[in-house]
């Protein structure tokens, strides 16, 4: 177990407020952050509407600055209060936190970097952290593990679908040709995906009888093979459900207790950023750091 | 148990006719009401067709008044014959009953309040009461409880889908831009939902190669993730079905008897408006009021 | 058991050829009939293509007459060779057989009765008889009984969907109005069905922000509730499959042997038109008539 | 067991490199081939984009020749190194290998045979061999056998769908007619398939009220019957999964060990082209030829 020097008191306090949702201050912080994220996303969306932007440009700009500065302060506090700042900065959420504050500052230097607006939408991903969906997701854990178990099969299925669309896309390009909107093979493959997935925009449609016959086959195929991913997910999910059920039924089960049944809380280790801790844990079970 | 004074005889009679479907008079009343509701909805629909309205305006208007007055009388009788009128008035169906009569009267005072026509469509919800679908729904109760059990998981799923559409919508806005119909981010998110759900109107379509590649990914994703809600509902429904089956198989089941198997009738308690009563019940099992 | 006089020999012969597929002659007859039906449908389809019709009008007309006369002869032979002609004439296939020959004769009397062409497409239904799909369908019998068991639940579901579309259609009519293609409530309801079922023609699309928000909700709803019929059918079908499996497993099953497992053949009783007979049956199990 | 003369040493070496993926040389060859196939398909796709083709025509042409010659050499080596060349040439992959090299040579003789480009897309099918998906597919073998078990039922279902679309297509043709885009019955049937599969291009849409009512019915039907193939595949797949599970549970299973559990490798018999061999097999289990 690595021996670690205790951090200064205010840092510990900040850590508790920012990283944990179990204290009133932590809960309040999370709610404020959640509102800030949603407000920020709404701002990005409304700003993009020209009629609104021309009217309320100053309001949008000021609000955006307020939120950006708040996020910046939060980012700095997160770095300071964590034991291993580098680990946070290079973590998934660390990068997202940085990307969601930087565009606004860059817009000061480079005028008209409108494209950077996209990075602000990335803030939305932060919602997952604030909502501490970990706890909630553990309820739908069977679903996650069912999807994981299905991954390989669905990948093979998707590869097969891709190959089919490329071949049929080429065929459609040869049959319909430029004059009916099938300008080139990539566009024709795009049309094929649009049709096979039953989306059917209708911006490109086959005009020749032969093209329409092949299109019909693609549609019926798409209509039929949707059964495959559905069948896989359903069967895997049912299996997972049944496994847990059986474990519940036989108390002296030979199988190990399901990990979901361990009570976890939302404390985050200030050393290694591990988030799933047992309810009464006193030390991080990943790095031995005192919680 | 609250001691309640017996209502006057004619009120009891009215209560029986309006609220219960077990007597011939009650059945007759229900059928008339059902026809009135359907006729009323047809009127609303046909009135909205200009060519028909200009021809048969007077007929439509008179019929509408007849139905509105009938519904008003019914509403008043419902209030009178119930023990706790306030409870009825503030109940779900009480509000619907009011909302479905009031627009026509308001159209007398405020000329041209065409918008209120929508409230008349709300009458359709009354069908559920008339059809006393309670009994029928109990047959598909496994479905309802399966949907309830799936609710949390489907909510998480829907939240994830929403976040995906907002992020991808922003990306598409940046790639395609105003010139290809992606006027602003909300509209782009709308397009993203249209595409992900495989609806595909085709009023807005990506024109750039990169936009079409991302659109393809969205479509394939939408085509694949439809498996998730389907898988959840199917698995939950199968589980519920199996539970009942097991109970049927083991006569001396350790599990409590399934509530569906109790015979209920359509009597409505005149005190608390509770509708599910055991077939031979003499007192309301919710408030102890004599049926 | 009704005592029946034996039919004249040639009638019995005809009966065997037309109604049974177990003799070489019967099989040959069925194949010829199958080809005639498919040819007839192809004729109807090709005739409707103007460019082809103007070229090959005489060929189409003559072929159509040949097929019609063949079908007429077959119809008459069917009446003659059956014990109870009235029962055949009023049976499902009897009516279809009549409807598929009569239009051509009527076109002689009433010039330009193009609309009657539809009745010729009805001939397609005859395919089911020729293919003697009975035997084949019994293989997918679990599917049929699963669909039957799901009927009530799917009906309730469909009713709910219908009510939702009518209410949302009215709302969309009020929001979008005539100027955006939502001309009247029925058309708006039609749009709502197009959207909820994820078909999405795109001939009518919401233009107002509020309309697009509600449209998004309709689409997500449609995308989600497709899980309901799928879940019901899958669960019921799995149940049926398992039932049979259990019966197979326990030889001395307390449950009656599954009817599917009785070997049936395609003989048709010449008295009562019953088609499912046990392989070694000598008398019709419905009317006692000698096969 | 047929006695076979050993091939010359270099032929054996070539066989090992081309047909087997277990040696380093074989793995390297497979990776090169995979890259060549993907590059070749990308070339075909990019060539079809006019703006790119006019710019880089020479580059595309040269690259195409390089790949074609490589494929030709590979094809010849495959013929030489195999014991029974005729068997390879007439096998599925033999024909594909030929078809993917020949078009380029033909374009030398016949100028402007652009249509042959389609055959080059067939190269994509070769990917399945290179990826040696056999091993991987055996993981999703339950899926394949589930699909096989569902085949008959899905065929009946598809036949029924086809008959429905033909009849409804004819009805729509009669109702809507030429003036609304339903030019002839085949086109009308095409529209019907577009609608039933919920693709909904929107290039042809019903305009008459009656047409829209029938269209609504078709859409709801399509929305509902998608449950059928999904239900079949899911149920069959679940059954297969459970069977394996049961076998795993009961070690002394009365059922034979599941074939998937035999370790196979990617060696290909140079005599009979059989690809699934047990890991320690020394002779081909199909023809007895030494591996």
From TrEMBL, chains A, B, C, D:
**InterPro entries the record matches:** Ion_trans_dom, VG_K_chnl, Volt_channel_dom_sf
Q: Which Gene3D superfamilies match?
A: 1.10.287.70, Voltage-gated potassium channels. Chain C
Q: Where in the cell is it found?
A: Membrane
Residue ranges of every copy of the Ion transport domain listed in the record: 27-244
Is Transmembrane helix tagged as a keyword? yes
Membrane topology per the entry is:
Multi-pass membrane protein
Q: Which UniProt keywords apply?
A: Ion channel, Ion transport, Membrane, Potassium, Potassium channel, Potassium transport, Transmembrane, Transmembrane helix, Transport, Voltage-gated channel
Q: By its UniProt entry, which Pfam families does this protein fall under?
A: Ion_trans (PF00520)
Q: Where are the transmembrane segments?
A: 28-46, 58-82, 102-122, 156-175, 213-233
What protein am I looking at? Answer: Ion transporter
Q: Which organism is it from?
A: Lacinutrix gracilariae
